[in-house]
UniProtKB/TrEMBL annotation:
<dbReference type="GO" id="GO:0006986">
    <property type="term" value="P:response to unfolded protein"/>
</dbReference>
<dbReference type="GO" id="GO:1904380">
    <property type="term" value="P:endoplasmic reticulum mannose trimming"/>
</dbReference>
<dbReference type="GO" id="GO:0044322">
    <property type="term" value="C:endoplasmic reticulum quality control compartment"/>
</dbReference>
<keyword id="KW-0834">Unfolded protein response</keyword>
<comment type="function">
    <text>Extracts misfolded glycoproteins, but not glycoproteins undergoing productive folding, from the calnexin cycle. It is directly involved in endoplasmic reticulum-associated degradation (ERAD) and targets misfolded glycoproteins for degradation in an N-glycan-independent manner, probably by forming a complex with SEL1L. It has low mannosidase activity, catalyzing mannose trimming from Man8GlcNAc2 to Man7GlcNAc2.</text>
</comment>
<keyword id="KW-0325">Glycoprotein</keyword>
<dbReference type="GO" id="GO:0005509">
    <property type="term" value="F:calcium ion binding"/>
</dbReference>
<protein>
    <recommendedName>
        <fullName>alpha-1,2-Mannosidase</fullName>
        <ecNumber>3.2.1.-</ecNumber>
    </recommendedName>
</protein>
<keyword id="KW-0256">Endoplasmic reticulum</keyword>
<keyword id="KW-0479">Metal-binding</keyword>
<dbReference type="Pfam" id="PF01532">
    <property type="entry name" value="Glyco_hydro_47"/>
</dbReference>
<keyword id="KW-0735">Signal-anchor</keyword>
<keyword id="KW-1133">Transmembrane helix</keyword>
<keyword id="KW-0106">Calcium</keyword>
<feature type="binding site">
    <location>
        <position position="450"/>
    </location>
    <ligand>
        <name>Ca(2+)</name>
    </ligand>
</feature>
<keyword id="KW-0812">Transmembrane</keyword>
<keyword id="KW-0378">Hydrolase</keyword>
Amino acid sequence: MRDLARGMFVFGYDNYMAHAFPQDELNPIYCRGRGPDLGDPSNLNINDVLGNYSLTLVDALDTLAIMGNSSEFQKAVKLVINTVSFDKDSTVQVFEATIRVLGSLLSAHRIITDSKQPFGDMTIKDYDNELLHLAHDLAVRLLPAFENTKTGIPYPRVNLKTGVPPDSNNETCTAGAGSLLVEFGILSRLLGDSTFEWVARRAVKALWNLRSNDTGLLGNVVNIQTGHWVGKQSGLGAGLDSFYEYLLKSYILFGEKEDLEMFNAAYQSIQNYLRRGREACNEGEGDPPLYVNVNMFSGQLMNTWIDSLQAFFPGLQVLIGDVEDAICLHAFYYAIWKRYGALPERYNWQLQAPDVLFYPLRPELVESTYLLYQATKNPFYLHVGMDILQSLEKYTKVKCGYATLHHVIDKSKEDRMESFFLSETCKYLYLLFDEENPVHKSGTRYMFTTEGHIISVDKHLRESPWKEFFSEDEEQEQQGKFVHRPKSQELKVINSSSNCNRVPDERRYSLPLKSIYMRQIDQMVGLV
């Protein structure tokens, strides 16, 4: 299975390099490249992601390293250094450029400069921090998004050459504005320049201070000038997902306790208002646990669908040691996958049918499967990974790569292979089956960004000479807003062995969920 996952990546990557490079994406059906749709600036589905900067190549760098392909990694890095420029008249989404491009450049830079070289010799002859300089250049071009905003919450889009477009939208999603801290924080700490971390932290705190006084929840769309919630839906999927993820991962990476305090408070509100079903995952009576979309102010149900991005949440629960709940939620998404051989973008759990039918090769279910296997070592998750691999091979493989499913029922396709297929989906599948990978065996602690880019967790990133500067700012900005400060025992070490061992050894070779509950979930999605 590991070799099949590697072959999937190689087939997609080689075809991108042969038919699409230096353009941003591969059209795998017609074997050609695609860049921004300059003829139709309103085509945000394409233009938010593409920036005319060889996106797929950049996004795939650390996957090459993790798979141990030093020659191709070195070749790809040199190509990026020699051909990629951000001095382009391209309007990009700040969030996508940050997680896909900035994050990958920083990850690859760390791999090249790692004195231990755990993945093999990934050093570049005469390397002079060029990827770090590229990352810095990109981040500087994104900074105008944080200017002229009354709340400190950034504009969603910026032109890499001219700054914020004059007709720019004042509305942004919470995840897009509040999920920049990991990449911006790494950059600041590598450069010794607080600017980037400061603007990202300011945005997080601004959003945090807008949460509901009654529920502690945030909405999904906010006006960056007024702080008014335009979208009042609170859930775990699109618009909010990575906001929660980065509260926790910022703490893991930088050790700032306020990040964990915010995460703990947010997690408690999620459990109080979004979680439905029985209290325990693997015992008791009632419906299986499910996280729903509610009104941020009242906690009342807003609709009966969940989206595929929410499938990341079991993986996040693994990181905090809430493995039992993660098992249940993962089983629900896997049941949907079993029914369709893919995850529809939106699934209506009341109608037992998809609301939005496409599947763009997303990685979230694979990511949670990988992390649950690492936590439990239950072979069930290897079976899930095999099932996903075989579905991708059967339904999405085309002449020159892997294509988005336009319709998960009739399996019709769209001519698009998003860059995250190589940076995340293939990477997590490969790592799931590669027990001996240095990620697992080198003794170094690693964390994955929301785009699946690998970052080693070390002391250097926990050194912040400007920490007091942030603390003073926080005191001024809180303006009396209550911040949940957990008791000292809540500030536990994330991902410690004691958390990961919550699933007893005797359960590792049986189904992670009792068969009666597995059948209940299968019934819930119309499988039986």
